[in-house]
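[Discussion] Sanity-checking designs against the backbone

I'm trying to build intuition for which residues belong where. Below is a structure token string of 405 positions. I'd appreciate it if someone posts a full sequence so I can compare it with mine line by line.
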């Protein structure tokens, strides 16, 4: 049965290659009984034609601010009054900047100022443009003005680069608009998570590892995505499937994890180090299988670089959350790591007990930050991850408010 959704949706398309995907969004919205009217900026009309959107929406497409076809030449006011909601997809860095500063020099920017309905924005741009402080400031400003962000996602970009700035999938935008499901504590935020164990080879067939299953890290990825974040996960070898929409990078050794994390960490808003990274690796990795010889033998190990500490000491650092796996003196060691590694927060768990910690489906956490602490009792790791993500979102928000009051 087709549900009765009769929303009047004003869909604005700004200039960007993702404009071609918006045609599909019109089709999806109409399939759900929404009435759709489309506005194209001049730049958008270079990527897609008004005729495409006219055919799909069943209405003439508006492109001009001063529209003599409208009786009172107030097309923008009429459209703004008509709409139950305004969605801008794709929203370019330029249109977001105009919204942020109240510039009204074309149909869409003027419509935005005239609109009293809820406004949704689905950004799409090159990853470097997305990460520029100017764009991030503009995003914060429009969010403070009441705009709801949808996306962006991360992945391959039309320019050949990889990263954040891809427009969310039309189906996802459609769902957000029609269900109002915008659980969005981390909307517009990018989160990098390390998960699972690392494997440190001794020879072609043997390695040193630990008991991490990846459950805690993977649950955090899912919880962050459900709060609207774009998530990249650097995972050691585990037998889990990454949650949908996670950008997954698989590694094996601590050195590989270090390289993958460090080459991108400064582009992210938050880093969560949930991986159980090997502290030491065999000093020499043999090319051939080590032969059984003496009754006793010695392995020489060399210390690995500390990924978490390196991230937290970057000049442009994300909000950095560590984990601490302890068998004794949990608070003392965890607070020591918080200080020594220059972290914003640390989530400490007991390991080596009957329940919780490594491998188990359940876990308990003592979370510490400089001015406070929070205890999460033993519960399923998925539920626990939701709670930790909510706490992280709150502290990230507090930190950015202190920085930009
Ligand atoms: O994967 P599961 O089976 O679900 O188990 C979850 C977990 C117990 C692995 C997880 O909750 C956890 O505690 N992860 C961190 C384990 C750990 O390595 O703790 P640590 O106290 O040794 O390290 C402290 C922090 O430094 C961690 O954030 C770790 O990722 C980081 N670290 C450590 C060494 C290193 N070379 N680089 C690092 O980044």
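Best answer:
Here's mine. Compare freely.
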């Amino acid at each position: 049965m087709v549900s009765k959704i009769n929303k009047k949706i004003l869909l604005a398309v700004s200039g960007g290659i993702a404009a071609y995907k918006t045609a599909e969004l019109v089709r999806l919205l109409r399939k759900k009984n929404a009435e759709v009217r489309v506005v194209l900026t001049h730049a958008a009309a270079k990527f897609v034609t008004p005729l495409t959107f006219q055919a799909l929406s069943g209405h003439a497409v508006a492109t001009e601010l001063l529209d003599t076809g409208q009786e009172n030449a107030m097309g923008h006011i009429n459209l703004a009054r008509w709409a139950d909601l305004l969605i801008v997809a794709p929203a370019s860095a330029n249109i977001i900047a105009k919204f942020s500063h109240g510039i009204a020099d074309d149909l869409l920017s003027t419509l935005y100022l005239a609109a009293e309905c809820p406004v949704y924005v689905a950004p799409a741009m090159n990853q470097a443009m997305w990460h520029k402080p100017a764009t991030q400031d503009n995003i914060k400003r429009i969010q403070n003005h009441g705009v709801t962000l949808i996306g962006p996602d991360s992945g391959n970009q039309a320019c050949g680069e990889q990263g954040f700035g891809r427009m969310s999938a039309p189906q996802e935008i459609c769902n957000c608009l029609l269900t109002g499901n915008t659980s969005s504590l981390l909307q517009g935020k990018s989160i990098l998570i390390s998960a699972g164990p690392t494997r440190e080879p001794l020879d072609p067939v043997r390695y040193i590892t630990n008991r991490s299953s990846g459950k805690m890290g993977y649950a955090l990825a899912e919880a962050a995505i459900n709060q609207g974040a774009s998530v990249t996960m650097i995972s050691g070898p585990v037998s889990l499937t990454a949650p949908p929409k996670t950008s997954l990078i698989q590694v094996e050794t601590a050195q590989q994890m270090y390289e993958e994390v460090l080459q991108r960490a400064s582009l992210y808003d938050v880093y969560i180090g949930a991986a159980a990274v090997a502290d030491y690796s065999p000093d020499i990795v043999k090319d051939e299988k080590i032969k059984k010889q003496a009754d006793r033998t010695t392995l020489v190990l060399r210390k690995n670089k500390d990924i978490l500490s390196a991230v937290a000491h970057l000049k442009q650092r994300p909000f950095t959350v560590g984990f601490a796996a302890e068998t004794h003196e949990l608070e003392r060691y965890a607070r020591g790591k918080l200080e020594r590694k220059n972290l914003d927060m640390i989530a400490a768990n007991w390991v080596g007990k009957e329940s919780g910690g490594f491998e188990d489906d359940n876990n308990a956490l003592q979370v510490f930050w400089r001015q406070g602490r929070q205890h999460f009792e033993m519960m399923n790791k998925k539920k626990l991850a939701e709670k930790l993500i909510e706490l992280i979102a709150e502290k990230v928000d507090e930190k950015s408010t202190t920085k930009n009051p």
